[in-house]
User: Fold this.
Amino acid sequence: MGKKDPRVDAYIAKSPPFARPVLKSLRAAVHAGCPDVEETLKWGAPWFVYKGLLVGMATFKEHCAVNFWKGKLVVDDRGRPLEDAMGQFGRLTKVADLPAKTVLVAYVRKAAAFNDAGIPSPTRSKRKPKPPLAVPPDLAAALRKNRKAKATFDDFSPSHRREYIEWITEARTETTRTKRLETAIAWMAEGKPRMWKYMK
Assistant:
């Protein structure tokens, strides 16, 4: 049996008045289409989970949006997203903007069937890896003077090297660049990547 999450109730209650009936209709359609669905919050918005992500909904200042995780497989061309909103049905400001409940329920059943079958979400075209950046002369010189920092830098993945190089070279003043260079060397001497503060 499905499971409701009180955080979703709270999300709906805090949403603007125009959004509440839209979100309630969406929620009812999802539960009707997939009785075993479970609710959660992801990325700060309600999501419905059944053997993986199924569909999410979100509210903004002036509109709501629906996002089927496997949207390209689930929703036909008539429901293609508008350029100014995320999700499959564009900007939703009232219940009438949604497809009919029977259509929504059918989409939910289709999405659940894809999850039952283990069909993966259509992937976006893979980005080409960025070419490695040249190490600026001042960073190269500072690394030569500090063996620990150089060893750390040499062991870094290309993306970790890029983070330090971009941080240093994007400084707007020479003073800022010098300070960033000193900080970078100190952090690398301790084995730290550029974003170490945000890593768990």
Notes: Strands lie at 38-42, 45-49, 53-59, 64-68. Residues 77-84 have pLDDT under 50 and may be disordered. The radius of gyration is 24 Å.
